[in-house]
Amino acid sequence: MNEGNTPLRSLKEWRSYGQGYLKDAKIEDADTDAWLLMEYVCKMNRNYYYFHMDDFMEEKAALRYQELIHKRAAHIPVQYLTGEAWFYGESYLVDEHVLIPRQDTEVLIEESLKRLKPGMHILDLCTGSGCILLTLIRNASVTGAGSDISPEALAVAEKNQKRQGLKDCSWIESNLFEKIDGTFDMITSNPPYIPSGEIPGLMEEVRDHEPVLALDGHEDGLYFYRKIIDQSRRHLKSQAWLCMEIGFDQPDALTTLLTEAGYTNIQIIKDLAALPRVAVAQWISKC
């Protein structure tokens, strides 16, 4: 049941096993991941653990824990193993069809919230798990639609909507604006923006397990931005906002694209690491 000579029976011993196994596999956050997987398998919190860490772990749970530790050692992200990721204070279901929500994207949420008013109608392109759209609906009292080219991703987004009990949104299977009708007060997007040539050099967790469809921004990483910036103009109300997550090395290119397309009030916002993270721009109709 384990690879050592000493039987591992208690919660404490199994946790130590998990930490050691992941460290040997060069997993960066070995201690944290070993704990998260134990928390998930045993459905317990830290208080329970510290009062019961010398208790035996049930055999079924121990086998499951060992299985998940081995999968994490193979660089499968812990969020895919537990099926859950936290974003802006809320739990989201995730699987291999959607990107794992990241704290960096919360900068996009903050900037969008500054510009939203109750009753506005928004569109989230490349919605994935739906975390951007659902967070904005929950925190800004707006309605909206989320679109994605992947039906599997939309199935995850719909599950998250139902799980959170939100009703003011819809889901559209669409290649960007292909099946989008109407105009919006804001369009948000975290599109694929990694140049194709850089994908082989990504962390193994990202490169081998997160959906390439949601990562690959084609040759220069700007393919989807060009299309979104151009086509959004037909779907934005006058004085509406376009808010997009961007790569740290893309602010100059995005500023140029937005300026040439006729957007105004262009801003590049940095994240907590002082890296460019979000581009926002306003569309003022000339009609």
Order of helices and strands: HHHHHEEHEHEHEEHHEHEE
Helix content: 25-40%
Report the span from N to C terminus.
Answer: 71 Å
Count of structural domains: 2
Structural class per helix/strand content?
Answer: alpha/beta
Number of helical stretches of at least 4 residues: 11
Low-confidence stretches: 1-6
Look up the CATH topology of the largest domain. Answer: Rossmann fold
Broad shape: elongated
- Content of β-strand: 15-25%
The main pleated sheet reads as: 7 strands, mixed
List the helices and strands and how they pair.
Blueprint: H1 11-24, H2 30-42, H3 46-52, H4 59-73, H5 78-82, E1 84-87, E2 90-93, H6 106-115, E3 121-125, H7 131-140, E4 143-148, H8 151-164, E5 169-173, E6 184-189, H9 204-209, H10 223-232, E7 236-245, H11 251-260, E8 264-270, E9 276-283
Parallel strand pairs: 3-4, 3-6, 4-5, 6-7
Antiparallel strand pairs: 1-2, 7-9, 8-9
